[in-house]
Amino acid sequence: MTAILTVTMNPSIDVSASTEKVVPVRKLRCTNVRHDPGGGGVNVARMIKRLGGDCRALYPAGGAAGHRLRHLLDEEGILSIPIQAAAETRESFTVVDQANRDQYRFLLPGAPLSEAEWQACLDRVAALVEPPRYIVASGSLPPGVPDDFFARLARVAALIDARIMLDTSGPALAAALEAGVHLVKPNLREFRDLTGLPLDREGDWERAAEALVHAGKADIVALTLGDQGALLVSRDVHLRTRAIPVEVVSAVGAGDSFLAGLVWRLSVGDGLADAFRYAVATGTAALLTPGTELARKRDTDRLYRQLMPHRTPDRNRKRI
Question: Which family does it belong to (predicted)?
């Protein structure tokens, strides 16, 4: 049985390139062009495969771009579960300015899905002959999909005895947490938007994460903090690690890589501390690759060996 299923409601073809200098009006000749399958859950599936795991990826796909998306995933050995959509799958593109190494990211909106199309995604998960242990729901929702889609998916996950791991933002995140998830992975900006709090200090982050856990909205909160590292909170475990200093080439896919490392290591039986440490290493490794390329396993393993998690002071809870 494949233990992990990813669900990506707004997949894309990610195009990346570089140009000598980004300036207005002029034609900008590009080099280093590459096309990758994209969207939150798609990237998680690709990263899990790179790390040595196995995963199924469910996503709506339409038109020539949707056909190409499946072809690109097939080339990477990802088992696809495409759900036919009438509208063309979107594209996004990233351009690197070689003069100053700035990165420009352009995300095109997803085409609307009909009620029949998004409901077909839920029905397909519910009907899986071999239900997964983990469902990774990651990325944005395209037009036409209700804000409570991930909440509905969480209820489907409960019916098939799967644990849902969530990485989204805005109203979709808030609605899913009302239904309850196993793990949620916001970044700091998303966490501030969710709580409505400034969350300026480290203690604020931890208290806000604890509040979600104790309210029963998430069993685990994994908060990514960019160059400040990451924090993980559950009822029994509080873990904090600083960022690993590296020279950043591209930040594209770092959050997806973090989540992939975390879910994969949990799926093979690692405890939270080791899985968290591996997640930080995987997210950091993604910073070392250009454009839309994901982390390399050799970089992840090297960084993992460097990293030891820092435990918060004892609060009469069990520590690992």
Answer: Belongs to the carbohydrate kinase PfkB family.
In the numeric block, the tokens 């077909």 are attached to 120
- Decide: 105 and 252 in contact? Cβ < 8 Å: yes
Alpha carbon 285 to chain centroid, angstroms = 15
Given the residues 74, 256, 299, 301, select the one marked as catalytic: 256
Burial class (CB in 10 A: 0-12, 13-18, 19+), 210: middle
Domain 4-22+30-311: assigned CATH number = 3.40.1190.20
Q: What Å distances lie between residue 131 and 94, 158, 175, 219, CA to CA? A: 36, 11, 24, 21
Nearest CA among 162, 7, 166 for reference residue 81: 7
Domain boundary assignment for the chain: 4-22+30-311
Q: What letter does residue 227 receive in the DSSP assignment?
A: G
Query: Is 193 an annotated catalytic residue?
Result: no
pLDDT digits (tens, 9 = 90+) for 118-164: 999 999 999 999 999 999 999 999 999 999 999 999 999 999 999 99
3-state secondary structure of 102: coil
The per-residue pLDDT for range 97-124, each reduced to its tens digit, is 999 988 898 988 888 999 999 999 999 9
- Give the strands of the sheet with 163-167, arranged side by side: 79-84, 56-61, 4-7, 134-138, 163-167, 181-184, 218-224, 230-234, 238-241, 310-311
What are 262-313's pLDDT values in tens digits? 999 999 999 999 999 999 999 999 999 987 788 999 999 999 998 864 444 4
Exposure of 27 in the CB half-sphere (CA atoms within 13 A): 1
